[in-house]
C-alpha cells in the first residue's frame, strides 16, 4: 500500500515557500535582473565593441582566445566579431524591446481595461469580445504576421509585440475595476458630483496598480522570449543589431564546429528569462496571491 | 443543448472577427499590395494581372466581401512559389505538424501526472523543489536554444538521435520533447496544486473514514476531479503549442506547417502566409470550443453557471 497522506492543514495549494527561501528567491532574481540592466546600460561604455566591423582573420575563435593582443573571452562568430561584445549589446536590445513593448501594451491596455470595466454594458462586452477575437490568433503568430507584412526591424517588432500584449493588461485591469467600482467610496464620489474621469483617475485607477505590476513583470519575460524567437527566425533585429536570438541563429550553420556561438547567448537569455519568471512569481505571492493568469 | 448553441455562436463570431482582423493586417502592407503579392521579380504587366485578380482596383468593402466569399469556398489564393493552391500547400504539411503537436501534447499530459503526484505527496521536500524547478525551467527556457543544445548533446556528443529531418520515429524524439516542455511545466504545477486542494475536500475524508486504501482514494476519487482542469488547461495552452511548432520545426528541419510559414514569409508568398495563419486561428478556436463543451459535459455546474 502506498502512502498518499497529504497534510492539507500545513501545505497551501499554491507552492508558497518558507520565508527564507522566498526572500532568497526574490533578492537573487532581483539581483540578476539588476545586473543585466547594468550591463545593458553601462556595458558598451566599458567594453569596446563594434557590431558592424568584421574580421575574417579572427573568425570562429573558441572562447578564451587571443589574437594580436586582442582577447576574445567568449570567442568569435563566423564573421570574426567578438561574441562577448555581441552579447553585451544584445542585452541592450533585449531589455529595450521588452521595456518599450510592455510599457506600450500596459498604457494602452490599462486605459482600455479601466474604461471598459468602469462603464460596463455594451462598450464593455464589445471590448472584451474584441479581446477574445484577437486571442483567437496565437500572439506569436499575430506578431509574425505583422512583421511579415510591415518588414523586419526593431521598431516594427516593438509595435507588433505591443499590439499582441494590450489584451492581457486590459483584462486584468478590467477585473480589478469591476471589484473597485462596487466600493462605497466610489458611490460617494459619484454622489458628490465628481466626473467619471475624476473618479477613474483618482479613485479607481490605483486599484489596478498592483495587479498590473505583477502582469507587467510576467509579460517582460514573455516579450524577451518572443523578441529572441522572432529574431532567431529572421523576423526581428536586422543584421547590424546583435539580438541574442539573431546571434543564436548565426551560430546554427556552424553549430557542430563552433558550439559557443549558439549556446552562450542562450545562457544569458535563459538566465534573464528565468530570473524574471521567479521575480514575477514572488511578486505575485506578495502582492496578488489570488491573481489568475491562465486566461 | 442551449449551452452548446451559445458556445457555437460565440465561436462563429470569434472566427469571423479573427478573419476580419487578418484582412485589416494584410491590407496594412506598405505601398501597393499587388507588388507584394506578385513577388519581387514581377514585371509591371504581371503586377497589373495580380491587381485585377485580387480585386485591388475595387473599393475596400467590395474587396472585403469577395475576400469573405473566397474564404467560405475555401479558396485562399495561389502560392507564387510552390504553384497550386495555398490551401493544398498547407494540407500537404499538416500531417507532419499534427504528428509533432499530438506527440508533444501526449507526452506532456502523460508525464504531468506522475511528476505532479510525486511533488504533491512530498510537498516541501527536495523532491517537490526539484520537480517545481524543472517545471519552471520547462516553462521559461527558450525552446529554440533548448533545441540546439539538445542537438549538440544527444545527437553530436552522445549519438543517440538524429539531429534533424524526418523519416523514422527516432527523428520525432527530440522535437517532441522540446515542444512538450512548456506545457509539461504548466501541467505539473496544476496537478500538484490541484491534488493538494482536492485532498482537503470532505469527500476524501469520507472515503478515508470508510477505510479505503490510499491508492483507491488517489486514483478513484481524487484523480477524477483532477482530469477536468488538466484537460481545460491543456486545451487552452494549445495555442502556445501551435506557436511552439513554428520554432521547433525550424530548429529540427521538420517538414511541417511552421516551416512552411517561415519559408513563405522569406519568399514573400503571402497567399500561403495567410492560409497558415487562418488555419491556426481556426484550429485554435475549434479546440477552445471542444474544450468548453467537454468541460460543460464533465462538470454540470459550468452549464448552469453559463445561463
TrEMBL record, chain A:
Annotated GO biological processes are: transmembrane transport
Q: Which InterPro entries match?
A: BP-dependent_transpt_permease, MetI-like, MetI-like_sf
User: How does the entry describe its membrane topology?
Assistant: Multi-pass membrane protein
| Domain ABC transmembrane type-1: from-to ranges | 91-280
- Residue ranges annotated as transmembrane are 26-47, 93-119, 207-238, 258-279
- Keyword Transmembrane in the entry? The reply is yes
Q: What are the subcellular locations of this protein? A: Cell membrane
UniProt protein name: ABC transporter permease
Species the sequence originates in: Jiangella asiatica
What does UniProt give as GO cellular component?
A: plasma membrane
Query: Of which family is this protein a member?
Result: Belongs to the binding-protein-dependent transport system permease family.
What PANTHER family does the record tag this protein with? D,D-DIPEPTIDE TRANSPORT SYSTEM PERMEASE PROTEIN DDPC-RELATED, OLIGOPEPTIDE TRANSPORT SYSTEM PERMEASE PROTEIN APPC
Task: Note the CDD domains from the entry.
Answer: TM_PBP2 (cd06261)
Q: Which UniProt keywords apply?
A: Cell membrane, Membrane, Transmembrane, Transmembrane helix, Transport
Does the keyword section mention Mitochondrion? no
Amino acid at each position: 500500500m502506498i502512502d498518499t497522506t497529504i497534510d492539507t492543514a500545513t501545505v497551501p495549494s499554491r507552492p508558497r515557500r518558507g520565508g527564507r527561501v522566498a526572500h532568497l528567491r526574490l533578492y537573487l532574481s532581483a539581483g540578476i535582473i539588476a545586473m543585466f540592466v547594468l550591463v545593458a546600460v553601462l556595458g558598451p561604455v566599458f567594453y569596446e565593441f563594434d557590431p558592424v566591423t568584421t574580421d575574417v582573420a579572427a573568425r570562429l575563435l573558441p572562447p578564451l582566445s587571443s589574437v594580436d593582443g586582442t582577447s576574445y573571452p567568449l570567442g568569435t562568430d563566423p564573421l570574426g566579431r567578438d561574441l562577448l561584445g555581441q552579447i553585451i549589446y544584445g542585452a541592450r536590445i533585449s531589455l529595450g524591446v521588452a521595456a518599450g513593448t510592455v510599457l506600450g501594451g500596459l498604457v494602452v491596455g490599462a486605459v482600455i481595461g479601466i474604461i471598459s470595466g468602469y462603464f460596463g454594458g455594451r462598450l464593455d462586452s464589445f471590448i472584451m469580445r474584441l479581446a477574445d477575437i484577437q486571442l483567437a490568433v496565437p500572439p506569436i503568430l499575430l506578431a509574425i504576421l505583422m512583421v511579415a507584412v510591415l518588414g523586419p526591424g526593431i521598431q516594427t517588432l516593438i509595435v507588433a509585440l505591443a499590439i499582441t500584449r494590450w489584451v492581457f493588461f486590459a483584462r486584468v485591469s478590467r477585473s480589478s475595476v469591476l471589484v473597485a467600482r462596487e466600493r462605497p467610496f466610489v458611490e460617494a464620489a459619484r454622489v458628490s458630483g465628481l466626473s467619471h474621469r475624476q473618479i477613474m483617475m483618482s479613485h479607481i485607477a490605483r486599484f489596478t496598480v498592483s495587479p498590473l505590476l505583477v502582469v507587467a513583470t510576467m509579460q517582460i519575460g514573455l516579450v524577451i522570449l518572443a523578441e529572441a524567437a522572432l529574431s532567431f527566425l529572421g523576423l526581428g533585429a536586422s543584421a547590424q543589431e546583435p539580438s541574442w536570438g539573431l546571434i543564436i541563429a548565426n551560430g546554427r550553420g556552424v553549430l557542430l564546429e563552433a558550439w559557443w556561438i549558439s549556446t552562450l547567448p542562450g545562457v544569458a537569455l535563459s538566465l534573464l528569462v528565468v530570473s524574471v519568471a521567479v521575480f514575477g512569481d514572488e511578486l505575485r505571492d506578495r502582492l496578488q496571491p489570488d491573481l489568475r493568469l491562465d486566461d | 443543448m442551449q449551452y452548446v448553441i451559445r458556445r457555437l455562436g460565440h465561436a462563429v463570431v470569434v472566427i469571423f472577427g479573427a478573419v476580419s482582423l487578418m484582412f485589416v493586417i494584410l491590407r496594412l502592407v506598405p505601398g501597393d499590395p499587388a507588388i507584394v503579392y506578385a513577388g519581387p521579380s514581377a514585371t509591371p504587366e504581371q503586377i497589373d494581372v495580380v491587381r485585377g485578380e485580387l480585386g485591388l482596383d475595387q473599393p475596400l468593402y467590395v474587396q472585403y466581401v469577395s475576400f469573405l466569399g473566397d474564404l467560405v469556398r475555401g479558396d485562399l489564393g495561389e502560392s507564387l512559389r510552390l504553384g497550386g493552391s495555398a490551401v493544398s500547400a498547407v494540407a500537404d504539411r499538416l500531417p507532419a505538424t499534427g504528428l509533432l503537436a499530438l506527440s508533444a501534447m501526449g507526452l506532456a499530459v502523460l508525464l504531468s501526472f506522475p511528476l505532479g503526484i510525486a511533488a504533491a505527496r512530498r510537498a516541501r521536500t527536495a523532491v517537490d523543489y526539484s520537480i517545481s524547478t524543472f517545471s519552471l525551467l520547462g516553462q521559461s527556457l527558450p525552446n529554440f536554444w533548448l533545441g540546439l543544445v539538445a542537438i549538440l548533446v544527444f545527437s553530436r556528443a552522445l549519438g543517440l538521435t538524429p539531429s534533424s529531418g524526418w523519416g523514422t520515429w527516432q527523428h520525432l524524439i527530440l522535437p517532441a520533447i522540446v515542444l512538450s516542455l512548456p506545457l509539461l511545466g504548466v501541467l505539473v504545477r496544476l496537478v500538484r496544486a490541484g491534488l493538494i486542494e482536492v485532498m482537503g475536500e470532505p469527500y476524501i475524508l469520507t472515503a478515508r473514514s470508510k477505510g479505503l486504501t490510499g491508492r483507491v482514494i488517489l486514483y478513484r476519487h481524487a484523480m477524477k476531479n483532477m482530469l477536468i482542469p488538466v484537460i481545460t488547461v491543456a486545451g487552452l495552452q494549445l495555442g502556445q503549442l501551435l506557436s511552439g511548432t513554428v520554432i521547433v520545426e525550424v530548429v529540427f528541419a521538420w517538414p511541417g506547417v511552421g516551416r512552411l510559414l517561415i519559408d513563405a514569409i522569406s519568399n514573400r508568398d503571402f497567399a500561403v502566409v495567410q492560409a497558415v495563419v487562418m488555419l491556426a486561428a481556426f484550429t485554435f478556436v475549434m479546440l477552445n470550443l471542444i474544450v468548453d463543451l467537454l468541460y460543460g459535459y464533465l462538470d454540470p455546474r459550468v452549464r448552469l453557471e453559463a445561463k
